[in-house]
Design a protein that fits this description.
The complex is a heterodimer. By secondary structure, chain A is of the alpha/beta class. In chain A, 38% of the residues lie in helices and 20% in strands. In chain A, α1 packs parallel to α7, α3 packs parallel to α4 and α8 crosses α13. Chain B has two domains: 307 residues, Thiamin diphosphate (ThDP)-binding fold, Pyr/PP domains (Rossmann fold, 3-Layer(aba) Sandwich), CATH 3.40.50.970; 28 residues, no CATH class. The chains are: A alpha/beta, B alpha/beta. Chains A and B meet through α3, α4 and α5 of A and α6 and α7 of B.
Chain lengths: 327, 363
């Protein structure tokens, strides 16, 4: 057990799996000699060779499309997409091909591919390098969507994702790569997909978050305590499949809920969380206040000057929590 | 200025290295090369495979018109392309990756005929890949399967085998990004893949000349470091010859090949969209005599191996095979939506399990 950064934990998971299973390989842009633009694959090529850590052409659709074929041939590919906004260059390959291969072959073929991509903004990156597009992919049947918030979970969830028999989109909090540090267990310690984590316990308001927004939720929980509001923070960890029971159990306890979403509001994943909460009668009748969501405005992710004002912040989340607690 | 530079060949404009299409059999069935690439028995078997594909497609179009089948894309007139691609393969280990117009080759490579019928009946069992069948399900998203072939070939090599992959697509697919991305990557990693373009001149209603300003599709390989070759796609012997060479290259580790087979769509794009009304008058009449079946029959006739009697026997045999498979397809119990929910993930999520229960209980 040692304290490491997010990016070190992710690298450690890949190195562990590649040493354990020779079918595991990494492909992506600049993942070899350079070790990836965020250094997530640093040193892997030197250790495992150019055959298993492959600098791919600047060609997202071929990276994902070939990963489908590599998987059918018996490899276990981890495909890195440099920024989540570029996954759309491979949208057809991810949603129409990768995600539905098992279904369309009636269970006879599968593609255990992990697609890793940095997720979200907040680091003053160029335009189109800071998107939070989880909802586009959570809407794709056959694809699991994982969004860890801390290094320990990132390592354990990535190990579980690589071993999962189905394709996984693994979203890594871009601004947390180095900023978010935490205890990371050594060795073969996985975190199961589909299990949420209660990060803070509280009886007044439930805050649901994923990825970098979990840190924000924890800060708000601390600030709310000073105002006498006990906030329970749920880190979803996996969006698909979602841990419905954990979310509903918390809301039945508190009767109040605020959902955080970095992405723009309309059609976002927060709406899915809210619908999941309220369509269960027992949970619905336990509600004492309308379920709220704090999201980005319905604009594209902005250029740097507007970034700070665009991103959800403790002020907005605390206001929503207070409104919920008072209603 | 630009013209001067062009004249001085400072710009590369015209790949001069692409020779005319390889041809072994004239439309009259005469052999244009010294030795036939297929023995008489192999030629007869090839003709039978083409005939099975033809009669299958014809029957399916007929059944579709009677409301018994869904939209389908027949390969009528183009069967020598897929059959000639499959003949040089070892079906126990080499892969065939279809687009959606290659029933003849798929059947020869081992797709059970009953499954081919089920596919056109809209059954998910048509996409089921039986164990040991080295084939991907057909792909209705044009060009979507081409990068899969690159990865599959690459992966087979990483796994230490010398198995090869053949992927089919039309000339329309070569305008898609996936075609270019797949060839580019295959060139870099030397994937053992034969990219087989059936240039049938029509993408629904859009003719070949509106698809690309390139003089040939084959030359597109050059930019990716992949040799390209043109072949008469209605000449089974020529297709087999070119494919044998390309398969051997791939198997010995020399990388991919792009094959452009010149053929013609004598059927329709699909039963839902017959682009034929856009074809210039007389174009079909020009192509009908080049039909791969006629050509093989004439060749065999010249060798004293084709009589009316042999033709009738073969037709009867093929019809009986189709009758039996069609009866089996009709007797296959229908698949259900509840069953389909079991094939989304290896294990059903609680939500899918709930949806499955709701469907089964009619909620």
């Amino acid at each position: 057990m040692a304290e490491t950064s997010m990016v070190e934990a992710i690298r450690s998971a890949m190195a562990f799996e590649m040493a354990r299973d020779e079918r595991v390989m990494v492909l992506g842009e600049d993942v070899g000699g350079s070790g990836g633009v965020f250094r997530a694959t640093d040193g892997l090529q030197a250790r495992f060779g150019t055959g298993r850590v492959v600098d791919a052409p600047l060609s997202e659709s071929a990276i994902i499309g070939s990963a489908v074929g590599l998987a059918i041939a018996g490899m276990v590919p981890i495909a890195e997409i440099q920024f989540v906004g570029f996954t759309h260059n491979a949208f057809n390959q991810i949603v129409e091909q990768l995600a539905r291969l098992r279904y369309r072959s009636w269970g006879t073929l599968s593609a255990p591919v992990v697609v890793r991509a940095p997720f979200g903004g907040g680091v003053r990156a160029p335009e189109m390098h800071s998107d939070a597009f989880e909802a586009h992919f959570a809407h794709a049947p056959g694809l699991k969507v994982v969004a860890p918030a801390n290094p320990g979970d990132a390592r354990g969830l990535l190990l579980a994702s690589i071993r999962d028999p189905d394709p996984v989109l693994f979203l890594e909090p871009l601004r947390g790569y180095r900023l978010i540090r935490g205890e990371v267990p050594d060795g073969d310690v996985t975190v199961p997909l589909g299990k949420a984590h209660v990060v803070r316990e509280g009886r007044d308001v439930t805050l649901v978050a994923w990825s970098a927004a979990v840190d924000l939720a924890k800060q708000v929980a601390d600030e709310a305590r000073a105002k006498g509001i006990a906030v329970e923070v749920i880190d979803l960890r996996t969006l698909v499949p979602m841990d419905e029971d954990a979310v509903r159990a918390s809301v039945r306890k508190t009767g109040r809920c605020v959902v955080l979403q970095e992405a723009s509001q309309t059609g976002g994943f927060a709406a899915e969380v809210i619908a999941t909460i309220q369509e269960d009668p027992e949970t619905f009748y336990s509600l004492k206040a309308p379920i709220a969501r704090v999201c980005g405005p319905d604009t594209p992710y902005p250029v740097q000057m507007l970034e700070e004002g665009y991103l959800i912040n403790t002020h907005r989340v605390l206001a929503a929590v207070t409104r919920s607690a008072e209603s | 200025m630009l013209e001067q530079l062009l004249n001085a060949r400072a710009f590369v404009m015209e790949p001069s290295t692409v020779p005319p299409p390889v041809q072994h059999l004239s439309p009259e069935g005469t052999l244009l090369v010294a030795e036939p690439v297929l023995s008489d028995a192999e030629a007869l078997a090839g003709l039978r495979a083409i005939l099975l594909g033809r009669r299958f497609d014809e029957r399916c179009v007929h059944l579709q018109r009677r409301g018994l089948m869904v939209t389908l894309a027949p390969g009528i007139g183009q069967e020598a392309c897929s059959v000639g691609s499959v003949i040089p393969l070892d079906r126990t280990r080499d892969w065939f990756v279809p687009q959606y117009r290659e029933a003849a080759g798929q059947l020869l490579h081992g797709l059970p005929l009953v499954q081919a019928f089920l596919w056109h009946m809209g059954s998910p069992l048509g996409f089921f890949v039986p164990k040991h069948l080295r084939m991907l399900p057909f792909n209705a998203a044009v060009a979507g399967q081409i990068p899969h072939a690159t990865g599959l070939g690459w992966g087979l090599r990483l796994r230490g085998t010398d198995d090869v992959v053949v992927v089919h697509f039309g000339e329309g697919a070569t305008s898609q990004g996936d075609f270019h991305e797949a060839l580019n990557l295959a060139g870099v990693v030397k994937a053992p893949v034969i990219f087989f373009c059936q240039n049938n001149n029509w993408a629904i209603s859009t003719p070949r000349e509106l698809q690309t300003a390139s003089a040939t599709i084959a030359q597109k390989g050059i930019a990716y470091g992949i040799p390209g070759i043109l072949v008469d796609g209605n000449d089974l012997f020529a297709v087999v010859d070119v494919m044998r060479e390309a398969v051997a290259r791939a198997r010995r580790g020399d990388g991919p090949t792009l094959v452009e087979a010149i053929t013609y769509r004598l059927g329709m794009h699909t039963t839902a969209d017959d682009g034929a009304r856009c074809e210039p008058a007389g174009m079909r009449d020009e192509w009908r005599p080049k039909d791969p079946i006629l050509r093989l029959q004439k060749y065999l006739q010249r060798r004293g191996l084709w009589t009316e009697r042999i033709g009738e026997d073969m037709d009867r045999e093929v019809a009986a095979e189709l009758d039996a498979a069609w009866a089996e397809a009709q007797a296959t119990p229908p698949s259900t939506v509840a069953e389909s929910l079991r094939h989304v993930f290896a294990e059903m999520s609680p939500r899918l399990a709930g949806q499955c229960d709701a469907i089964e209980e009619g909620r």
